[in-house]
User: Fold this.
Amino acid sequence: MVVTVYDVAQATGLSIASVSRALNARPGVSAATSARVMRTAADLGYRPNEVARSLVAKKTQTLALLVPDITNPFFPELVKGVQSVADESDQLLLLLDAPSEPDRLAQRLAALHRKQVDGVILVASELPAATGDVFDGMPGVFLDRAGSGGAPSVHVDQEHAAYLATRHVIQKGHSRIAHIQGPVNLTVSALRRSGWERACNEAGIASGDNRVFPGDFLEAGGHRAMERILDAADGTTAVFAANDLSAIGALACCASRGIRVPHDMSIIGFDGIELARYTSPALTTVAQPIRELGEQACALLLRRIAGEPADDIVLEASISHGGTVREWSGRADESSGGV
Ligand code: RIB
Assistant:
């Protein structure tokens, strides 16, 4: 049997209005009466009706976070940041898959609107073609991958972070640096390639299409790309991978072919996921402040829901020094890999 406010009123001899004020900690009820109501409600097993409560408050205290690939360890670290701020604000956080097909993404966002979530944080792969409001009228924030329309975004400067990673390798003496690209349909992949190109061009080293190898942000794609780089045997001594999982796949490929990292081949990644600290050697990478990205996105969304100004937030990435990039003087005898 569902215990209602009416049952609590009956049991305490109070009016429904007094019981409701006590249960919702609203003024007009003495401390003693409030305590008696709470005690009786607990004894009866009363549970507040969240649907009724949200109809009155016109808020559901529920946020939605959509991410593209929960199997990629970058995203759980991002979710923990969002969750920490949602918890502090007593918000329930719904975690959903962000469909890669724009139409399915639009349908999912419309479904969230019908469910009356208070706001949405979206890590989008591709956005619906319509240039209107992706969030279908809900308060929304783009996270990690910049968005479009009127909603603000929380992300790192992708191009500059990739530039920092590539410049780090160049400053170690490398002048033949291949790039394992991210999925070509993602804006972040193009921005990271641009950062690699800018650093190479600034140093006067090759950055043509033949230095770029397709990847998919997954270990398998990184492994395949590294196979092609090694098969080319064109003097490449360093690789910049568009994310850490691709770099980890490239590390595995080198190990399988007896190529020593970093002695024969240097590798730098992009993300700074926890897993990258435990490769052998630990991966050198350009680390995004992953948890802070999530925290800032949730705080920004709560400001939007409260009707406060909410502008883009761009955070800084930084080099995380592992053991996969070494000094290179350019002498042929330095490497027995002949790559
Ligand atoms: O590894 C997954 C990638 O997709 C990360 O680089 C992150 O920025 C996301 O966009």
